[in-house]
Write a structure and sequence with these properties.
With 163 residues, the chain is mainly α. It folds into 2 domains: 88 residues, 434 Repressor (Amino-terminal Domain) (Orthogonal Bundle); 61 residues. It has 8 helices and no strands. Helix 3 packs across helix 4. It comes from Streptomyces noursei (Streptomyces albulus). This is HTH cro/C1-type domain-containing protein. GO terms for molecular function: DNA binding.
Amino acid sequence: MSSKDDAARAGPDRPVPEDYVAERIKQEREARGWSTVTLAEKMAEAGHPVNQAAIWRIESGKPRRRVNLDEALGFCTVFGLAMDELTAPSLKHADAVIRGIVRDCVEKKHALARLQRDVQILEREIEHLKFELAHFASHGDEQKAELEELMQREDRAWLRQHP
């Protein structure tokens, strides 16, 4: 294949999904506040090395540089996208700031869900421990009073250590 054929393939006759990929790469990079150098480093870390100049040519070159399949897989890995998301048309009104806000919102929603699961686990553990303490306290008033005193001491000690 001649270099003229390569230029035609990467130029104005290039398939639309390839433009979508180039736009999406730039959009995802900017949404994260990454430079082309940072993206190149992340791609190398993911095992799909692409240099900074190649990333610039993919995003902005005239003609744009084509993305091969290995690189596309790398971009998917680095950005946390499925291949169909990488090749889909970009959202017209979702600029980098909005996309960043959406990403933060989704991350925080999932972090909250993890914390809620942790709270449920802790609540079950506390209930189990209270059951064991109630069993200990059921052996007489003296043990119950001793347990209450111990609980108060431990509570005060914890509060002193965790103001």
